[in-house]
Design goal:
The protein has 21 helices and 15 strands. By secondary structure, the chain is an alpha/beta fold. Helix 6 crosses helix 19 (about 470-480) and helix 18 (about 460-470) runs antiparallel to helix 20. The longest helix has 26 residues, at about 220-245. The structure holds one RNA strand.
Length: about 550
RNA sequence: GCGCUCGUAGCUCAGCCGGAUAGAGCGUCUGACUACGAAUCAGAAGGCCGCAGGUUCGAGUCCUGCCGAGCGCGCCA
């Protein structure tokens, strides 16, 4: 049990004994100022009305009543805070068990209902770009963090391999393909085609495998086959990129299977039967405005084809049928308006609306030499995720992506990122880890074997470091609950600072065996937390650098 | 116009369930390597926390309004 929880329990029982008051929420926090002790609580202030007494008086009574071996002192301060100091023995015991826990420190065994997280879900019409990268890094880290916080997680990638975009993409490749044989592939609207260089690569591979066969085929069949090939090509490429940025999925789900299984049709029929649809102008509309959407949406167009909403609703019905009762969709901020209509469809099917939860990730504003790089997949001037990683490396890319709240716009100046890579916060955190590894090499021992710890009073830098280390599980829980991945990088940078400060003032490898064992324990504990924390972000913790 | 997300140091951003003197990195300036890694540390400068009200013992944090930014508001996805 954390010190916060243990202190809260002490306070609760003290309030019960001294005042006959049953306290509900007892807020215990770490003060910013070390002179205010290791922990502080504002109960006397926050519950002034309940106690019907002067807060300072209440605080004094509570502080006097608290008595536990792990608490060294409890003092009243300011308008009525109670400041706690922990006994060194208790702190060292926690540090020892932290080291003992190893990779499980900060991690709870997953239990209960699984949550399904859907993210990236980029269409297979081109390589992943830097915007996808942010969603990939955020989604994967969130999944890891939620797992660490004790939630079962299933990661899924939904890809659209049918529909208009794919048809356009097939045509784009067909045009390139024809060029290779110096022939023509007539298209209606060449402006809407994908123009990226990669379309040539797809065409080259296509021609290698099939030669000129598509010129002799029925145009529709040819396009369908080319589309299949091009889609597969892109998915292979995307999977490679995902692997490179260390993002894994439990399942890749394709839109086509929903048509093949009749899922889309079944969903539409169900919606019709539910009475939440109507026909107008030859189209089938979903009465989504009944469920909070701005307006009603078309499900089936007047030409009989589906809008993208239809398969998406079917897809979510499928998630429900597969047994998921909680899902999180991670989407680009440009899809903000999409949630209400999808939720309307879900509710229309009789499923609970909170089955679907959405996190919007702001787009990445990519800068190069102070100028914004506009990117558009069709125009072809995309900066791909692979190019970004080529320039700054996988660790920097992953770390940088999640360093800021996913809700804020992120400006990423490529030129600057390369130039400043030496001063990058990733290296700051990694350096602390490598530095510790170096100490253990010199000490000729391992972090798992630091010897017996004989508790003693901690120096200020040691105490601050220790308290930071013991805060890790709370940070993980908090990040998971709020789905704010950036709390981890923020924490790790603070921890690294605490360690560097400790390191500068205190020599670890001293002659006094007791002192050495305690300091080595702090090093081992820090190394462990840095490694676990970076692991949650998909960033390496190097032994040397 | 309506909706969503934001507005904190020159720049990029933190800030726990409302707590004590609002923090870090980059940039600028000054110091510290013949002790375990100087990719580090210590210090300085730099703030009407967008503006105005409200809630209360206490507001960067909660509420309302305004100003500003981004995104969305298709029988595109």
């Amino acid at each position: 049990m954390s010190f916060e929880a243990r202190i809260a329990n002490e306070i609760r029982s003290a309030a019960r004994d001294a005042f006959g008051v049953e306290l509900e929420a007892v807020h215990v926090e770490r003060p910013n100022d070390p002179s205010h002790g290791d922990f502080a609580t504002n109960v006397a202030l926050a519950n002034a009305k309940v106690f019907k007494r002067n807060p300072r008086e209440v605080a004094a009574t509570l502080a006097g009543a608290v008595e536990a071996p792990f608490i060294k002192s409890a003092e009243v301060a300011g308008p009525g805070f109670i400041n706690f100091r922990l006994s060194p023995g208790a702190v060292w015991a926690e540090i020892a068990s932290l080291i003992e826990a190893g990779e499980n420190y900060g991690r709870e065994e997953p239990s209960g209902e699984p949550v399904q997280i859907e993210f990236v879900s980029a269409n297979p019409t081109g390589p992943m770009h830097v915007g996808h990268g942010r969603q990939a890094a955020y989604g994967d880290s969130l999944a890891r963090i939620m797992e660490a916080a004790g939630r079962k997680v299933s990661r899924e990638y939904y890809f659209n391999d049918g529909g208009n975009q794919i048809r356009l993409f097939a045509e784009s490749v067909a045009v390139r393909y024809a060029e290779m044989f110096e022939r023509e592939w007539p298209v209606e609207d060449s402006d809407s085609l994908y123009k990226g260089e990669y379309t040539k690569e797809v065409a080259r591979d296509l021609s290698k495998e099939y030669g000129e066969k598509f010129f002799d085929m029925d145009r529709g069949e040819a396009l369908s086959e080319i589309g299949d090939f091009a889609t597969r090509w892109c998915m292979d490429d995307i999977r490679r990129t995902l692997a490179r940025i260390r993002v894994r999925f439990d399942n890749f789900f394709n839109e086509k299977s929903l048509y093949d299984s009749g899922g889309v049709e079944k969903t539409i029929e169900k919606l019709k039967a539910s009475g939440h649809t109507y026909e107008e102008d030859g189209a089938v509309w979903l009465s989504s405005s009944e469920f909070g959407d701005d307006k009603d949406r078309v499900l089936v167009k007047s030409d009989g084809s589906y809008t993208y909403v239809a398969p998406d609703i079917a897809y979510h019905a499928d998630k429900w049928e597969r047994g998921f009762r909680a899902t999180v969709n991670i989407l680009g901020a440009d899809h903000a308006g999409y949630t209400p209509r999808l939720r309307a469809g879900i509710v229309g099917l009789g499923l609970p609306g909170d089955f679907l939860d959405v996190e919007l990730v702001r787009l990445v504003k990519l800068m190069r030499d102070g100028e914004e790089v506009k990117f558009s997949k069709r125009a072809g001037n995309v900066v791909t995720l692979d190019e970004l990683m080529d320039e700054v490396g996988e660790d920097v890319a992953r770390y940088f992506y999640v360093r800021f709240s996913h809700k804020t716009e992120m400006g990423f100046d490529l030129g600057l990122a390369i130039k400043q890579s030496d001063e990058n916060p990733v290296f700051y955190v990694q350096y602390a880890h490598a530095r510790i590894a170096s100490i253990f090499r010199r000490a000729e021992t391992s972090p798992e074997d630091v010897g017996e710890i004989h508790p003693a009073e901690l120096a200020p830098e040691e105490r601050v470091l220790a308290m930071e280390l013991l805060d890790f599980p709370r940070i993980v829980r908090n990040a998971a609950a709020k789905r704010e991945v950036h709390l981890l990088p923020t924490y790790l940078e603070t921890l690294a600072t605490r360690y560097h400060q400790f390191y500068t003032i205190h020599k670890v490898l001293v002659d006094d065996e007791d002192v050495k064992a305690r300091r080595l324990a702090l090093c081992a504990a820090t190394k462990n937390v840095l490694k676990n924390g970076l692991g949650l972000l998909g960033v390496h913790a190097p032994e040397r650098m």
